[in-house]
Predict the 3D structure of the following.
Amino acid sequence: MKLTWRSLGLISLLGGLGGLIPLYASNRILSWESIVVSTVEKVLLACMTAGVVSWAVHRKPLVRWVGLPISGWLIGWVSLIPYQLVVLRVFETTGSFSISERLQRIWSALIWPWWFSLSWFQTLRSAFNTESGIVLIAYFLWVICQGWSAKRLLVHTAIGIVSGGLGWTISFWDSIRPGSLEIFQNMIWGALVGFGVWKAVATSTKPN
């Protein structure tokens, strides 16, 4: 089942909501940067995960297995670019950055696995983070285990929740562990994305 643009847009929107709802529920005073970054990160994560999974699910078994680590690394890299833009203070207006320096910081954020690593091993390892862990589990359950073809809402929401709740365990070498808020956020994100996937599957199987 190939995703339509409308279905992919719905999944992306639900992913963005999954990044916003727990932030609102936390009762913290948050900067606009953290709100935007969390939303964009979860939109990218949902959009790319659903897109890759829908492409891979009908491929040959060898392609599916090869796609597992590749998709995890690539999505882990791209989904954290908004966070790296904040870390490198690209959006700061109080600093005296020149245009060339700001462009250099943007470029550094785009290639952050290479920029912050001292070796190729560290480059490969750095993008296997919490986000890639979520992707790896979701990909495994939806593609390898063929959960994508399920027609029950419970199956897709369960896959999303499990992926969000346990995704961080994949990045076992990372010294930074997510707190309870982030795990809760990821589980909400997974439930909403799972609902979006179920909706897309249900729509595609309706008779014309």
The two ends are 15 Å apart (CA to CA).
